[in-house]
Every structure is written in structure tokens, then in C-alpha cells.
Design brief:
Two copies of one chain form a homodimer.
Chain A (H helix, E strand, L loop, with lengths): L2 H12 L3 E5 L18 H19 L5 E5 L1 H4 L2 H16 L4 E8 L3 H11 L2 E4 L2 E4 L5 E4 L9 H10 L2 E7 L6 H4 L2 E2 L2 E2 H12 L12 E5 L4 H10 L5 E3 L9 H4 L10 E5 L1 H4 L2 H4 L9 H19 L11
Helix pairs in contact in A: 2-4, 2-13, 5-6
Chain lengths: ~325, ~325
């Protein structure tokens, strides 16, 4: 099945459009968690792996997607990367789609190597084997089509997806993305190219394998891009910790509640911080995660078209 | 010593501005090389490690810098990343500076995690340890200052460097980088910001820790950027295989032959391809690498200001 169809159906089945972002900062792990592991790079990596797997146990039954932020694993060298790999393998055995958030970018055969790495297969001993095998990855458009086409080609062949950075959620997104050329800001030039990149790559549910990253923190831009890019899945960062509200995101959805996938990272995984002070070893951080997911699902249901995703019987 | 000073002095000492790019594509390894390793992901990763270390033995005495393309290692999963780590450790014991070419980009604490990963130190058991410890890394500017500042901050603290993509060497670089806003193409807006990012980060030799990636395949843009960005080190890809010639690059140098670092990847590491057909197991690929380095050094010396780097006695 095509990636975009898998997404739409998972969103429908779970009844919400939430992506749980797994960005494990060791210093934010629940009280006492890190201390159970050796104080070495491998020990911290092991802690990140175990934490990620535990988060998956809680969230995989509840949400359609998870997103792994590669930076926090790369920070612990090859051991950290191995921990990410093991956590992704764990996720793949659960009922949840996996996005690799590495914002990779390069040209030609190098871009192809990244695409093969995360979405496709690499040559091993005369055969081809998947190395990472995630469902989708984030990519950066600064290099133009040469830097996008190899990802799209391999995503199409492997029934996977990409999310191209269009409008990021940070304050200085404006610096280059808002520069106006021929009456259009750069991010809208990227959006226009995105339609070309995705041409003919529509799944049965009407969505494309080439998605867009559009921040929750720019509601007007989000609304405009939704209008301009029907059939494009939006990965929406910036909800919660970064200040984006459900109301800000509402216009990013299609009327049926599909089309926008809303990420929340530390607001969910480190939700225990809200309910208890650090150092309180008795805190039930798993339950805090579960409650934070339900809270976010309810918030989106109440304030965005995502409310229409809920089964009528609910 | 500051990164930029280390670069300038290494270029002076070696008498050339060459970066050997190590982008190991398994299918291009010398005849018979890959076959000595098990046909597994770990086996291929081991082959990449051994090849990279062998290349280093040949080139480290000859050139000031090497650059590792992360994509080709990530393609082999955690095993590939471990091979990259081991090869970088090997490089750090040789007399050569190391650039991690991963074109990373993100915002806030995520950008900081990448910067700590590759340039700085990460918290481990109450202390701080380096995970990768390279001399410099490439980064992508699409996210604006939020995505650059954390890298610059940590590079400054650790006496390391960054190279920001300004004008890439590929054909479709024009798509977004050449869009004109307020009379200036986007890549020149990036160049202007780059001066802000590097403010006050000059070493004793007059160069900044914030460098720029500027492709050899756009000689006019290269010349213009050189004029606009004195004191900024250029990492110049696109020489050789991508079509850039020494004459194209000449204007990227300062008159004394400093300021431009010219990368060549497969033109050096897979130079045996030029001298013998694949399948000829007798090919001396190490000698082909050595000859390709000398040829490139001579070409740059004859056709660019890099000729002035050579000691008077040579």
C-alpha cells in the first residue's frame, strides 16, 4: 500500500492525527531513569533505547505515527545511532508508522544514498537489503530538484514518503523563507516546486507521497498553503512547547480532518515534568505520557476538523 | 588554536588547498576489495572502514584536509556509522583536518544536539565527552539564524568550524538559490547573513570559523562571493567529476593562495578507474590515488593562486 494511504487509514483507524515525536534528551529523562545505566556513552545510548521503546509501548496503540529526531541519537555516536536503529525496529513491530526526522539533503548519488539508507535498500553481497526501513523521512529543499528527485524516486519505488521543509516553525524561518521573489515568498516557491515533485504520485486516498513540513506557529501561512496544496500531507511541528495551539492548526486540515499530522515531542514524552517535580522518583511518567496524548487528541478534536475523525459511536 | 588558523597553517605547510573527499560507494571500490569481506551489512561496513583508512594512509601526508560524506556510511545502518566513526578516529591520529559532510540542519536545542555531537561534547555520567570530535561540519541555512547560531556557538567554544551551504555545485542550485529578492539572489542573502553569524569569530590568520560552501561549477558567483566575503574560508565542491576546472576556481582564492579549499572525492579515491578497467585485479589503486592527488595539486598550482603556496625551494 502507498505511504500516503497507510497514513490516511491509520489516522482514520486511530481517530486522531497525532505524531508523537521521540527526541530523547538524557537530561529530561524521568527521575531515576538514566541512573540505572552505566555512565558511559553506550550506557546513555542504552537508556535512550529503553526509554524510546517504553514510550512506544504507551503511544503506539493510541496514535498513527511516531517521529524520531536523529540528532539526539547521533549525539551519542555510533552507540546512539545503534540505539535509534533498535528503537525503530521495535516501532516497526508495533501498529504505528515511523518518520525519520533527519532533514537530510544532498545531490545526485549522495541524495540517493540517503534515500536508499532510510527508505530503500542498499547492495549487500549481491542482494539488496533495507538498512533502516522507515516509512518516511524529512528532507531540506535548499539544493533544489537535484536534491529532492532521488528521494522521491526511491520513495515511489518503495511505497514510502518524504516531507519537504516548506515553512518551518521557528522564529527565524522568516529570514530566508519569507524573502519575496516575483511576488511570492521563497517558501511558496518551494511549495510550487513540491507540486511538480509529487506529480503523479497520488495514492488512492487522494494524498501524495511528497508531503510538506509546515509549522503550527504560522497559522496564516498554514491556511494559505493548505489551499494551495490540496492532496499534500502536512507534517505540522510547533504544537505545544513551541507555542502553536490547536486553533492555530485548524486551517491546516481538510474538512474531513485528514491532511495534517500534528507533532508533539517533549510535551508528550516528558509530560511528567508538568505533573511532578524532577527528583520525585515516584512519578508515573508512563501515565503522564498517556494522559498527555489523550489531552492533545481531545484538544485537536475540539478545535480542529480532526474532531470528525472520531468514530460516530465514540 | 582556532579552526581557521589550523586550516590556513595546514594549507601553508602542505603547500596546497586540497580536500580529499571520502565518499565510499561499495560498487566503486577497487577490484577484489569488497570480495574480501563477508556479504553482510557489517561486512560492507568493514570494507568501507578499511578502504577509508587505506586512503588516509596515502593522502594524509599530502593534503591538509579530508571530508567524509556521511550518506555512504549511513546507508549501511549503525554498522556503517560505526565504520565512519572508526575511520574518523584513524584520521585524527594522522596529520590531517577532518570535515564531517552531513549538511545537518535543525533549530534550537536540536541544532545544539547536532553541534555537540560532531563538534563538541555530550553529557555522559556527570562529565562531558566528545562523541565525534571532527574539526568542522557542513550545515544547511534554510531555517535561518535559529538553525545556525547553535552550531556557531559550539564551534566557537570548541575551536571548531562550520561550512554553511551558500551556493551549491549542482545544476538545480539555481531553482531557489538564484531567486532574486530586493535585487539580490537568495544565496547572496545567505552570504550577507553569514557575515553576521561570523562576526567577531576571526582567527589570527584573518579567517573566520564560519565558512561557506561555494561550488566550482559557478565561476562568476564564486568570484563575486570571494569579493563579498573576505576572511571567509570557501569549501569548494564540484572540481573534476562534476565539471569544475582549476581555472573556474581561480577567483575563489585570495591572492596568496589561501581562502579556498578545493574538494575532490571520487576523482581521487576511485582514480584507478581512469588507469585500468574494473576487473583487473592487478591495478595499483593506492598509487592511482597518490598520482591523482599530485595531478590535482599541480593543476591548481598552475592555474590558480594556490601556486603561491608552494615553498620557494620547491
Amino acid at each position: 500500500m502507498e505511504f500516503a494511504d497507510r497514513v490516511v487509514q491509520a489516522v482514520r483507524r486511530k481517530g486522531n492525527p497525532v505524531i508523537v515525536g521521540i527526541d530523547p534528551r538524557p537530561e529530561e529523562l524521568p527521575p531515576g531513569f538514566l541512573e540505572r545505566f552505566p555512565g558511559t556513552r553506550a550506557g546513555v545510548a542504552d537508556a535512550l533505547r529503553e526509554f524510546g521503546c517504553e514510550v512506544l509501548e504507551v503511544v503506539a496503540p493510541l496514535v498513527p505515527l511516531v517521529k524520531f529526531q536523529s540528532a539526539f541519537y547521533e549525539a551519542y555516536g555510533p552507540e546512539g545511532v545503534a540505539a535509534l536503529h533498535a528503537t525503530i525496529e521495535h516501532a516497526r513491530k508495533r501498529d504505528v508508522l515511523v518518520i525519520f526526522d533527519g532533514k537530510r539533503n544532498d545531490i545526485g548519488s549522495t541524495a540517493e544514498a540517503y534515500a536508499r539508507a532510510y527508505l530503500g535498500k542498499t547492495p549487500v553481497g549481491g542482494a539488496f537489503e533495507p538498512s533502516w526501513d522507515v516509512d518516511a523521512m524529512t528532507i531540506n529543499p535548499y539544493l533544489g530538484s537535484d536534491g529532492i528527485d532521488p528521494f522521491v524516486k526511491i520513495a515511489a519505488r518503495e511505497h514510502k514518503g518524504v516531507f519537504v521543509l516548506v515553512r518551518t516553525s521557528n522564529a527565524s524561518a522568516r529570514e530566508f523563507q519569507d524573502l519575496v521573489c516575483d511576488g511570492l515568498p521563497i517558501y511558496r516557491h518551494v511549495a510550487r516546486r513540491l507540486q511538480t515533485w509529487g506529480k503523479g504520485k497520488q495514492g488512492e486516498e487522494g494524498y501524495n507521497l511528497v508531503g510538506a513540513v509546515v509549522g503550527a506557529t504560522y497559522p496564516n501561512e498554514l491556511a494559505q498553503l493548505r489551499e494551495e496544496l490540496p492532496g499534500v500531507l502536512f507534517l505540522v511541528p510547533g504544537y505545544g512547547a513551541q507555542g502553536g495551539t490547536a486553533k492555530d492548526i485548524a486551517a491546516g486540515f481538510a474538512p474531513d480532518g485528514q491532511g495534517a499530522l500534528v507533532n508533539n515531542s517533549r510535551g508528550i514524552t516528558f509530560a511528567y515534568n508538568k505533573v511532578a517535580h524532577r527528583g520525585d522518583a515516584g512519578v508515573d511518567w508512563r501515565r503522564a505520557i498517556e494522559e498527555a496524548v489523550h489531552e492533545m487528541v481531545d484538544d485537536l478534536a475540539a478545535n480542529t476538523p480532526a474532531g470528525r475523525l472520531r468514530p460516530a459511536s465514540a
